[in-house]
Amino acid sequence: MKILTAREMKRIDRAAIEEIGIPGTVLMENAGLRIVRALKGRFPKPEDETIVIVAGKGNNGGDGLVVARHLFNSGAAPEVLLLAAKEEVKGDAAVNLSVVLKLGIPVTEIRTPAEWKKARVKVFHATVLVDALFGTGLLKPLDRLFALAVEDMNTSAAFKVAVDIPSGLSSDTFEMIGPCVKADLTVALAAPKIAHIFPPAAEWIGDLVVAPIGIPPFLFDKPELKLELVEGKTVLPFFGKRNRDTHKGSYGHLLIFAGSLGKTGAAVLAGKAALRTGAGLVTVATAQSALPMVARSMAELMTEPLAETAGRTIAKEALPRALELVNGKSAVLLGPGLSTNPSTAEFVLGLLPKLKVPAVIDADGLNIIAAKPDILRRLSAPTVLTPHPGEFSRLVGRSAAEVLKHRLELVPEFAAKFGVTVVLKGYRTLIAAPDGRVFVNPTGNPGMATGGTGDVLSGIIASQVIQEKDFLGAVLSAVYAHGLAGDIAAERVGEKSLTAGDIIRYLPPALKALAGE
Questions:
Q1: How far apart are CA 390 and CA 406, in angstroms?
Q2: In what order do the strands lie in the sheet containing 227-229?
Q3: Cβ-count burial of 320 within 10 angstroms (0-12 exposed, 13-18 middle, 19+ buried)?
Q4: pTM score > 0.85 for this model?
Q5: In whole angstroms, what is the distance from residue 133 CA to residue 164 CA?
């Protein structure tokens, strides 16, 4: 499902109307019907509610007028507060205003703050408020009359339904630009917009419903539309049932370079997660003294000792043996718990250019290459980086705050520049492909903000990579499954108590659900 800007949505609307020939009134009618359907999902008997629709003069207000008509036809008694003069309403919205007036639905014109103060008692008495003031084209903060209306709508105890987007948000940014409606439910029309997806703007959306309004799907399949929300139907093909005539070799052999003194847990979590996700074989190569702890963690994990430093991390002298181990493996996972010891860094920087198999680079692997990111240009096989904002900030030389603020520009720019796939972890994890496409993962919860969940994710990604031919699909499906397992874990143990181990524990039911079992 594509995530659009206001300009992209307007272009698609225009194509549907002018090229396909779908009248704008039909799209507006479909929008209103979808909003009423969503509202009735919460309030099955709208006739029992006191419903007030706060409408603007544009198409968003027109959608609200369609809502008023269908609620009226359902037996409800909606009222419309129109924050404009009736003669200011034009086009398709004017058509629906005329119908509403002929039906006798009360429409109160409000053009000044003084007029609003006289009418706002209706807002305070409402049990349901429909926000149809402004749509996706807003670029500047609301002020005067509109800011006052939004403030009072937020003060009201009514359940608030936003048409397309809460008034006051700009659809093209997740930053707050001024006062806006705090919605309980937002019905996004045709496609979600940026403000629907990312905080802080997304915190004002409430529950999000994306409603089709009759625009042909192929109009969204344009190569220039680069931002997309990952859906379950996108990843389901990567979790189908296995063929009967298979063996462990059919599902790949993953080699993990991870762990050091005090950080063996990272290697263990990655290895366990990879096996639980279906890898045929997993070998963890780690510093010699760390090996016993890794080996005791799970009988199914194979282990390999490597030469170590005085600090008991993998040493540069381990490189020849590491290259021998890579032979015959399906992919390499590098980084969890490695440390950034100078000798370990030499090992990593010496290993990466020689890899001929796909690689997943995480944690200290990322911290090491941050000093020499150009080494990524020398990688010959598909590679995915899995940084959190702090690690990515070191890769690009920007603060973590800047990374979060400009993630939609910085992450795809880095992926394209170095020819890698980047998974920026966090709420609404971003996955950027080298070709410029960017995906947003919808699964996951705040309980996953705890140590080790990134190690689990890297293991799941690497496991999917060795099992699937579609590299990007493997990454997307892994991120989705990781978040889903976290969501199931949160349901069972609560967000506060959730640990990385719980994600592995609840991977099986997540994978069963994705497999349709």
A1: 14
A2: 227-229, 438-440, 430-432, 421-424, 383-385, 359-361, 331-334, 253-257, 281-287, 302-306
A3: exposed
A4: yes
A5: 10
Q: What is the pLDDT of residues 202-225, one digit of tens each?
A: 999 999 999 999 999 999 998 899
* Residues 154, 125 contacting (CB under 8 angstroms): no
List the structure tokens of 366: 């990322």
- The mean pLDDT of 124-138, rounded to a whole number, is 95
Rounded Cα distance between 14 and 21, Å, is: 10
Report the mean per-residue pLDDT for the chain: 96
Task: Name the token pair of 228.
Answer: 């997309």
What's the length of the chain? Answer: 517
Give the model confidence (pLDDT) of 254-302 as tens digits: 999 999 999 999 999 999 999 999 999 999 999 999 999 999 999 999 9
The 10s digit of each residue's pLDDT in 158-188 is: 999 999 999 999 999 999 999 999 999 999 9
Q: Cis (ω within 30 of 0) for the bond into 305?
A: no
Element holding 383 (H helix, E strand): strand 383-385
* Domains of the chain as residue ranges with CATH: 6-225 (3.40.50.10260), 233-514 (3.40.1190.20)
107-109, strands of its sheet edge to edge: 107-109, 79-82, 51-55, 128-132, 159-163, 185-189, 207-211
Q: Which residue has the tokens 């290993």?
A: 351
Pair of tokens at residue 117:
């103060």
Rounded Cα–Cα distance for residues 351 and 320 (Å): 9
> Is-contact 286 269, C-beta < 8 A?
no
Give the distance, in angstroms, between the CA of residue 397 and the centroid of all CA atoms in the same chain: 24
